[in-house]
Structures are given as C-alpha cells and as structure tokens.
C-alpha cells in the first residue's frame, strides 16, 4: 500500500484532473464535422503522461481527426499478461440552459465535481491518469504491465476509437489479457446501510436497425392499397409492442442471488419485474437486462400531405442479451414479415464470469476501503468499448469504483442534466484503484 500522504496527493490530483478534463468540451454528436475538443483532451492527457516520464503512443484513428493516447507501465513480471485500463475522452452533448452550472465548467462545489463527463467517464480517466502519474513519479512497479488507453469516439460506438484501434493497431494491446473501464464499481445502498458495489461482467448487444418499406407512390385523394407509410407503421407498432421473453443470464442471476443474500428479498420468476422495482433507481437498468428490447426511435416518410410516398423508413434501437442473437433474429423475422427491408449496425453482447484472481483483487480492494460492503456482478443494459476489446480475446470488467451517497440517482446522471460526481467518491475510487493495481 502507498503511504497515506502519498495516495492522498494522488486522490487530490484525481479530483483536479477530473475537473480540468470536464472543462475541455469533448462533445461527440456522432457527426465528425461537429467535433470540438477531442484533440485538446488527448493532448492534455499526453502532456500529463510525458511530463512524468511516460513514452506515449499518440494515434490519430481513421484519418478522421480522432485522437487516442496509449502508454504502458512496465510491471515486475513481464511474463504475465498485461492489464488494460481504458477510458474514453469524448462526452455526449449538453445544453447549458438546462443545467444548474455550466456543463463544461468542471465546477467543484457542494462536495461534487460538476459537468458533462463527471460520471461518463472523465471521473475514471481522472483517477487513472492521477495514478499513472503517481506510479511513475514514485517509481512504483505494479505486479504486471498496465496499459493505459485514452480513447476517442466511444459515445458514437467507437468506430473511430476503440474499434479502429483493435482493427488497425492491435499491437498496442499486445499481451493484454484483462481490462477494466466503465460502467461498474459504483455502490448501491441496500438494507441497513449495506453497500453493494456492482462490477460489470456483461453487456447487452447493440443493434441499431433501419427498417424500410417500399410501396407504390400515388395521389392522397385516391383509393390506394399499397401505402408504404401504413405498412411500415403496422410493422413498427408490432415490434414496439412486442415483449421479448424473460431470460435470466448468469450475470443477472448471480446479481439477484447476491441481493437476496443481503436483503432477504425474493425475486420470483413469475413477477421478476415487480420484484426488481424494489431496487429503486437502479431498477431501470437492471430491469432492462431481463429481456431483449426493440424500441422504435425515428420515423421518416413523405414530403407532402397529399402525396403517398413510395418508401417509408424507421430506426429501431435493439438491445440483445448474451446468447440470444439467433432467437432474437427469428422473433424479429416473424414480427416484421418478408416485406420489410432491414439493415443495421451491430455490436456484440459481452459476458464473462465473476471469478478468478482479478475479481478477487477488485473485491479485496473495495472491502479494504469499505469494510462490510459486498461486490456483485451485473449486466449493463448499454454498451461500452469493451465490445471492441473483447475481439482481442480480452476479458472485460466495468470497474470504476465510486462510493456513492445512498440517495444519489446515479444511473440518471449518465447523459443526464446536472451530471456530477462526489469529490469523496473520486478520492475513494483512487484509493481502491491503487490497491487494485498494486495487487492485480
Ligand atoms: Zn461512457
């Protein structure tokens, strides 16, 4: 363990760095022409690393003005696989008129660091960067190599960040066997002030699907039997109203069993959704990991009230449980029928087991800082860059530790208004990560 005053200094720096990173507006709308500060953030990180002696690799991905920084800290045993610690530097947009403080102020007030990215995920980037600097400054050698990766474009699916690097620069992740990043390691408070830290072991798959129907164009005043708008509307309604079957994956089953052990609550399969509601705010996310979902999000058709268009299109956001892809496709085909054209962008589900030395090290690090707490695996209903690193055979975990106040609606802060992270939680997370890096 690092001497207390030294790790306190690293924790202080994690708070400052998180605030400084938030002040660099790295909004990623998905449209590369609107990029603002991704380059500035990457250069900031690169400078912080080189300043303390790291040799970094600075990669512009995909020729699209996207910026990534990778650095490796040599461990004591080079024969062991490396640990990859990755974080994205981009954030989703924020409208200042909706916020209590400016979303790119990085204000430190009322015990919180405020701003877009405070929990997604400049908090983890700040903690990681502070520890990377701490180790280099004090010649601290971890048990095995740690690869620090600061990445572009996660919020638009990573096509010009993690995906591109995995396709084009896999050498940068050579020897990495396990990885940590968002979204996990945060606490929820269950009965009697017992905290459970949720470590992400699985993610649903993402399929952003476009549906297209072709019909016959015509005048809106005539009898018309081949209307693309009508056909598409029917298909979208069938899909949007469909309830995919309840499937308990291992991660969800283990999570619920852990909650039962702590609280005594039952999760009967005939009223699982009702029982999950007892979990409070986090139930929105847990509830979404019990079934596949397909939510229609966009409709496009026509250009004039009295013209029947020849095509109509819809976008549907599908989220698919690990192991469910084939079954999902069968149900989809049945619901939509043969006349609907489909195309999509897909990122696979992720799932690993909640066991082994790395999981033990995460649990030990958390419990050393929060005695009496528990760690539990859980499935993220969204997606992260873990989907890309899985393709390199790397085992992925969401572990960005934060001890949170019981009444904070943490999951609502992701992409939400007044996104903020408790200063104490950043300091706690830095100490936990330090113990973890030095024991893993
Ligand atoms: Zn994120």
Automatic annotation (TrEMBL):
Domain of life of the organism encoding this protein: Bacteria
Pfam families: M20_dimer (PF07687), Peptidase_M20 (PF01546)
Claim: Zinc is one of the keywords in the record: yes
Domain Peptidase M20 dimerisation positions: 201-323
Cofactor list: Zn(2+)
Keyword tags: Hydrolase, Metal-binding, Zinc
Keyword Hydrolase: yes
Family: Belongs to the peptidase M20A family.
Protein name: M20/M25/M40 family metallo-hydrolase
Organism the protein comes from: Prauserella endophytica
